[in-house]
Q: What sequence folds into this?
């Protein structure tokens, strides 16, 4: 590079003329390195000298910045973070989500036409199935956690409108969303929930409340087959219970009214008892006929045996159902149990009621077992999240970083003071048209202010003189 010194005819000062090298000067394609000029070295030395001269100003500015940074660091509200890590449910426990995916894929494929449209519909269905299926259950849970249902539940539970100093629910939701960070690791599927709050206990409670609310909402909206089966069996079980109660009541009332408690055993006992009475009656009548042939009717043995025969006849008539010759007391006693003639009619009705009660009882037992099994199956199929890392009580604050704030404030103060010193020195020495224009404008503004103050003083003096003249001549 060539440098020549020429004389400027206007001011007779040497002017350096730098000629650019020709394109043929670089050899082998290497660029020529430009070394700093003496003016650049002198400028840097001058800046260092200015900074050293104004070191007291820079020091005071740094101290002020340090004090201001300390005040800001300790005035900023303290925040705590509580983190919880969740694992999405396994594939076999998420049949509800899998059903949504299958329905989405089936609907897309059946609604598509043949050919390219059918293939496109099938692909869209599979994509929808993947989006709604178990593979993306973590993303689905993140969306549910960020929904208004869970947010409103937490706002009402922890009275967050008062905590966030808001009146409207929408403002409280935005504040809660700002204080909550939810993300899913696409590789592992682990969901991380981080809650920030000024109270460490509330931060921990909010993180745990998110998981509780999520499980509750998932249980409410679950559409698994076991849930539908459990709901059906539950309704059927209530109906069968009502039928069983009605059947038992009818059976007990009929049995109490007719004095039947065990119809087969009771029928056998009554038939055996009647047969025994018939045998005793026949034997007593034969003996009575023999005594009458020997003794008169007034004989004590004849009279005793005659009374016994009459008693046996009454018992036989009572059991056989012929109660025309019974008195009221005997009829009342005999009415407690059915007669042998009524046993077929009573037995048919009794058997029907007994069979109905047994059917309803057996059906109720079977439905009860099915209901318990359906509840267990439903609990297995509800997609619940598993807690990997529970929310812990934060011990250290997450914000503000006071050391960083103080160090950054001090550094910025030093830089600001140095830039201010260099800028002020350059402005004083500059002869640019911009500085001249700014100086002229400032001078005119100062002159206008001076004239305005002079006019005000003249007017004030005149006003004061008039007041003095007026007071001098009452």
A:
């Amino acid at each position: 590079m060539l440098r020549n010194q020429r004389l400027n005819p206007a001011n007779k000062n040497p002017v350096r003329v730098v000629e650019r090298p020709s394109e043929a000067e670089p050899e082998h394609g290497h660029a020529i390195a430009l070394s700093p000029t003496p003016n650049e070295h002198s400028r840097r030395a001058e800046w260092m000298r200015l900074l050293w001269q104004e070191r007291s100003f820079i020091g005071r500015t740094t101290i002020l910045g340090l004090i201001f940074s300390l005040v800001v660091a300790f005035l900023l509200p303290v925040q705590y973070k509580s983190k919880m890590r969740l694992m999405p449910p396994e594939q076999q426990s998420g049949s509800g989500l899998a059903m949504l995916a299958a329905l989405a894929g089936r609907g897309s494929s059946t609604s598509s036409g043949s050919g390219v449209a059918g293939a496109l519909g099938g692909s869209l269905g599979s994509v929808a199935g993947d989006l709604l299926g178990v593979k993306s259950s973590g993303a689905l849970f993140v969306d549910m956690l960020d929904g208004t249902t869970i947010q409103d539940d937490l706002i009402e539970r922890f009275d967050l409108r008062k905590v966030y100093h808001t009146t409207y629910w929408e403002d409280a939701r935005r504040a809660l969303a700002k204080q909550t960070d939810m993300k899913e690791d696409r590789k592992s599927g682990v969901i991380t929930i981080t809650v920030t709050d000024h109270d460490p206990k509330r931060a921990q409670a909010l993180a745990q409340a998110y998981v509780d609310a999520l499980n509750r909402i998932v249980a409410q909206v679950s559409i698994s087959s076991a849930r539908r089966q459990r709901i059906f069996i539950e309704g059927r079980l209530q109906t069968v219970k009502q039928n069983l109660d009605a059947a038992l009541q009818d059976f007990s009332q009929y049995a109490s009214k007719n004095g039947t408690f065990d119809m087969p055993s009771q029928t056998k006992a009554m038939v055996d008892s009647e047969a025994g009475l018939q045998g005793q009656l026949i034997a007593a009548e034969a003996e009575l006929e023999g005594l009458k042939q020997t003794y008169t009717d007034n004989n004590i043995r004849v009279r005793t045996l005659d009374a016994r025969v009459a008693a046996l006849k009454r018992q036989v008539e009572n059991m056989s159902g012929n109660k025309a010759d019974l008195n009221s007391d005997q009829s009342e006693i005999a009415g407690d149990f059915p007669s042998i003639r009524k046993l077929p009619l009573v037995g048919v009705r009794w058997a029907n009621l007994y069979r109905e009660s047994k059917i309803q009882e057996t059906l109720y037992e079977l439905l009860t077992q099915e209901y318990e099994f359906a509840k267990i199956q439903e609990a297995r199929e509800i997609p619940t999240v598993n807690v990997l890392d529970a929310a812990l009580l934060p011990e250290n604050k997450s914000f503000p970083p006071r050391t960083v704030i103080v160090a950054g404030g001090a550094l910025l103060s030093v830089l600001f003071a140095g830039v201010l010193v260099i800028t002020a020195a350059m402005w004083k020495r500059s002869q640019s048209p911009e500085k001249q224009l700014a100086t002229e404008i400032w001078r005119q503004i100062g002159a206008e202010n001076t004239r305005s103050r002079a006019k005000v003083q003249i007017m004030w003096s005149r006003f004061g003189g008039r007041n003095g003249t007026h007071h001098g001549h009452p």
Observations:
- The chain has 16 helices and six strands.
- The chain has four domains: 2-75+402-428, 80-224, 236-378, 431-463.
